[in-house]
Inverse folding.
């Protein structure tokens, strides 16, 4: 008989004695209980665990195969946590599953990935109205929509949740690069972010551009507040609605379409982002207006918009001034007197073409 056989026989005898003792205890462990013990012996296809005072635990067969990645990292004397599969098999052992140990191992890896800011390429399992469900080593984690990169962020008007959900569903089954930003095993909370990934590469690309550079690219997205333009592979810039045209722009979709080729000027490079202006490459109408108009001139102007301060009136395309509500009894009276789209006579009170600022006074008939 081999030395290993004598060792196992000794463990069996001791285990049976401890199992007999455990039957007289009030809190005898049962199937489904979670229990912790120290590793007594490691063999080719089994692990023995000291579960004093209840007996000896045994991990073997399917449970051993399922836990190989954990078993590789344990040694005699290490503590392991398992779920009781059988509180007393025919040999008197308490059969264990290392499911809980596996979970602990994975959570430990998640915490390590968080500390190291490790990037993970993981498939999207599901989508909901708040974000994406991503599974990592058997644990389901959440990637909030707010943590998506600009490339994958759902650009939906008005924050319509149903449309956001439709856009997020397009990502199901695809692999995306993410980082762990929260790993809380007690709460079972695993949260990912896509925003921090590829930052080094992105910073390198952004570093190639400076304020004043002119770029060409295709429109990749249109939202209420502006237009996204592909500057280079892996980099988009935003042309804010105020930078699309010298004239009043209320809906960028009326000026641009996705895929359209445009030219723009870099007006800001900050925090890994590029801001663009399309109107900066067009002739500034205030320059020519400065040669034609001055304070106290009487002009014809068209009402193009109402706001909380009054009404905007345009004397030329791209050159508009404010008609203040204080000239009227109320905003309602102003809107009665000045209709959108109609032309009226005004006097220029303030005219500063350099600051692109003008105020007008309504010349009542």
């Amino acid at each position: 008989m081999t030395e290993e056989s004598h060792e196992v026989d000794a463990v069996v005898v001791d285990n049976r004695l401890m199992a007999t003792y455990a039957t007289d205890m009030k809190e005898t462990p049962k199937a489904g209980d979670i229990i912790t013990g120290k590793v007594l012996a490691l063999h080719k296809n089994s692990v023995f665990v000291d579960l004093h005072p209840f007996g000896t635990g045994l991990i073997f067969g399917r449970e051993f195969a399922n836990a190989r990645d954990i078993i590789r990292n344990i040694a005699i004397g290490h503590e392991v946590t398992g779920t009781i599969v059988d509180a007393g098999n025919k040999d008197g052992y308490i059969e264990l599953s290392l499911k809980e140990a596996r979970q602990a191992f994975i959570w430990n890896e998640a915490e390590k990935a968080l500390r190291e800011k490790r990037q993970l390429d993981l498939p999207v399992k599901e989508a909901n109205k708040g974000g994406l469900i991503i599974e990592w080593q058997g644990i389901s984690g959440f990637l909030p929509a707010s943590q998506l990169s600009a490339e994958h962020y759902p650009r939906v008007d008005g924050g319509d949740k149903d449309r956001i959900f439709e856009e997020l569903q397009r990502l199901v089954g695809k692999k995306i690069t993410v980082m762990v930003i929260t790993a809380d095993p007690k709460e079972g909370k695993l949260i990912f972010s896509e925003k921090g990934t590829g930052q080094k590469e992105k910073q390198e690309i952004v570093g190639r551009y400076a304020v004043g550079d002119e770029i060409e690219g295709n429109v990749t997205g249109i939202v209420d507040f502006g237009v996204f333009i592909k500057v280079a592979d892996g980099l988009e810039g935003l042309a804010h609605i105020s930078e699309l045209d010298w004239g009043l722009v209320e809906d960028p979709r009326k000026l641009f379409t996705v895929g359209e080729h445009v030219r723009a000027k870099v007006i800001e490079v900050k925090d890994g982002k590029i801001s663009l202006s399309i109107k900066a490459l067009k002739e500034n109408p205030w320059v020519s207006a400065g040669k034609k108009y001055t304070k106290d001139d009487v002009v014809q102007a068209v009402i193009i918009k109402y706001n909380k301060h009054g009404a905007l009136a345009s004397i030329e395309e791209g050159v508009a001034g404010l008609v203040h509500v204080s000239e009227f009894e109320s905003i309602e009276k102003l809107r009665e007197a000045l209709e959108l789209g109609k032309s009226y006579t005004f006097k220029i009170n303030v005219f500063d073409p350099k600051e692109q600022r003008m105020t007008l006074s309504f010349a009542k008939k």
